C-alpha cells in the first residue's frame, strides 16, 4: 500500500491538468538499467508485448534494442503490471528509461497504490529515481516519483487543489492607521 493518499494527489492524475499520458522517466541510465527493467518484467511475470514498427516480436536484449540504426522505428514495450494498467516503454536513448501511463487508468486509491508499487519496483531494481512529469514535460519539474533514499514514492510538487486546505491570500491590506 502506498503512503500517498488519493485525496492529496488527485490533481496529479487529472488528464486536464497533466495531459492524458504523463511522462515517467528514470534519468541517468545505461544499457544495464534498461536490461534490469526487461529482467524485472520477466521476473514479475507481467504480461508484455514488444514491437518494432508495429510488428510484434520476441523481446530481445536491451543491448540489441539500443544499438538499432538511428533511422529505425522506435521500439516499444507494452507492460501490464496490473489489470487495465498499461505502461508503454519507448527505447529512445539508453541514458533515460521513459514510459507513458494513461491517467484514465489511474483513478482512485487502489489504482494509485498499484502505480506506486510499479514505480517502486522499477526504482528498486535499478536503484535510481523514477519521476513523473506532465505530458510533454522536460522532466525538470516532476510532481511525484520513487525516491531512492526514502525507498518510496513521494510528492515533489504541491497539488493545484487540496480539499480542506486553508486559502492563502497574499494581498496586503491597506494600513489605515498610518495616514498623516
Overall structural class, as computed from helix and strand content, comes to alpha+beta
Mean pLDDT: 88
Number of DSSP strands? 9
Spans with pLDDT under 50 lasting ≥5 residues? Answer: 161-180
Overall geometric form: globular
Topology:
Blueprint: H1 6-9, H2 15-18, E1 23-27, H3 31-44, E2 48-52, E3 55-57, H4 62-66, E4 76-82, E5 85-93, E6 96-101, H5 109-126, E7 130-133, E8 144-147, E9 152-155
Antiparallel strand pairs: 1-6, 1-7, 2-3, 2-4, 4-5, 5-6, 7-8, 8-9
Describe what this molecule looks like in 3D.
With 180 residues, this protein is α+β, with helices and mostly antiparallel strands. Helix content is 25%, strand content 26%. It has five helices and nine strands; from the N terminus they run H-H-E-H-E-E-H-E-E-E-H-E-E-E. The protein has helices spanning 6-9, 15-18, 31-44, 62-66, 109-126, and strands spanning 23-27, 48-52, 55-57, 76-82, 85-93, 96-101, 130-133, 144-147, 152-155. A nine-stranded antiparallel beta sheet has the order 3-2-4-5-6-1-7-8-9, covered by helices on one side. Helix 3 crosses helix 5. Residues 161-180 have low confidence and may be disordered.
Amino acid at each position: 500500500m502506498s503512503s500517498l493518499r488519493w485525496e492529496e494527489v488527485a490533481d496529479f492524475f487529472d488528464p486536464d491538468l497533466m495531459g492524458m499520458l504523463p511522462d515517467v522517466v528514470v534519468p541517468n541510465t545505461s544499457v544495464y538499467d534498461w536490461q534490469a527493467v526487461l529482467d524485472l518484467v520477466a521476473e514479475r511475470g507481467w504480461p508484455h508485448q514488444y514491437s518494432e514498427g508495429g510488428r510484434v516480436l520476441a523481446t530481445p536484449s536491451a543491448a540489441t534494442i539500443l544499438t538499432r540504426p538511428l533511422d529505425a522505428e522506435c521500439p516499444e514495450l507494452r507492460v501490464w503490471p496490473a489489470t487495465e494498467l498499461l505502461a508503454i516503454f519507448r527505447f529512445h536513448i539508453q541514458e533515460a528509461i521513459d514510459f507513458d501511463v494513461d491517467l484514465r487508468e489511474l483513478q482512485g486509491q487502489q489504482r494509485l497504490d498499484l502505480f506506486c508499487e510499479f514505480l517502486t519496483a522499477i526504482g528498486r531494481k535499478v536503484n535510481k529515481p523514477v519521476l513523473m512529469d506532465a505530458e510533454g514535460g522536460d522532466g525538470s519539474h516532476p510532481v511525484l516519483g520513487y525516491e531512492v533514499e526514502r525507498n518510496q514514492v513521494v510528492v515533489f510538487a504541491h497539488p493545484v487543489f487540496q480539499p480542506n486546505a486553508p486559502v492563502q491570500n497574499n494581498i496586503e491590506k491597506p494600513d489605515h492607521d498610518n495616514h498623516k
